[in-house]
Model the fold of this input.
Amino acid sequence: MVVLISPHEGYRAQLKRALEVEGAKLAAAYELYPGYAQLPALLEHACDAYIVEIDSDLDVALDLVETICSRKPSATVIVYSALNDPDRLVSSMRAGAREFLTGALVAGPMREALGRAASRSSSFSLKRALGKTVVFWAAKGGSGVSTLAANFAIALRAETSEPVLLADMNPQLGDLSVLLSITSRFTIGDALKSAKRLDSEFLSTLVTEHSSGVSVIAAPDAFIPSSPIEQPAVAKFLDLARNQYPWVVIDAGPSLGAGVESVFEMANLIYLITQLDIPSLRSTQRFISYMQAEADPRIEVVVNRYDPRRTEFDDERVAKALGLKPKWKIPNDYAAAHKAANTGNALIHENSPISQSLRQLARSACGKPAQAARKKGGWSLFG
Done:
């Protein structure tokens, strides 16, 4: 069984004919190089080999070859180029390809390559699950996203006892390092500006360990003037992260720009943070309309700084305004949040209504049943 990847119509047709001659079954044929968001589906194909045509875009193709080889060693990557170029052969082999076909395809080399691929496949039995990506984002700044993401990650680590990566995807003005009182040598900026170097080993150098056991990739301390962040860089970072960690928690900052599209596309769960005021609800509604979230079960609306005694919006009015009913309400506890932010001590370690709510949020995310929450001051955890 073979998966064929070739954006070039002529080469794709030629490769299909060669496979038919050999009696090889085609599991799938891709007319474009799959992006990182499509990798899980690509790697799930039950196949012995991937044939990747590299002439359409050499850099993108070799990056894809390297990713397939590292993520699915049970399958053989066969590279095809119309050019008999030694440099391309060497680059392909360095990327992990085991076979290299060139020029006009003849029966012998294709048959031999497929035979070797089948032999290698039979010696492997590997199934590795991707980690889950949880994204915290708000359509309006100042909604408390960083505080919620940081403390949720610590609660998740405690609830699951599994490795958790917390990434500050706000490369200009991220706050996680301050909130958690950590100093990082490398940052998310290093990851996103060095996408071609980014691999599992490089990713491990970017991480700073928090005392809670959460691995953190912080934002730069210095302000960095706005510069375009390409979606492929963000997607590659997320793909590597969820391949190494069972849980990846993202603080999706507003300065990520267009790169945030990849974050939403690759997320397993999106906590959309809002507050009960007209500007926040309006911005949230516009985002939900854009995402068509009514049909997207990954999105859960979280009302932050909730105080039932000081709001004019009940659940029905909020649901009518947003098109989605709030699933979570994080109570307003200014004193506890203010103290935690100024001292660098994680809020989750305090016995406060906010910490109780975030523990429940973490339990839900990892599939544990909710615990009975203490009612104090009239707040309620659930909508």
Remarks:
- Confidence is low (pLDDT under 50) at residues 376-383.
- The longest strand covers residues 299-306.
- DSSP finds 15 helices and 13 strands in the chain.
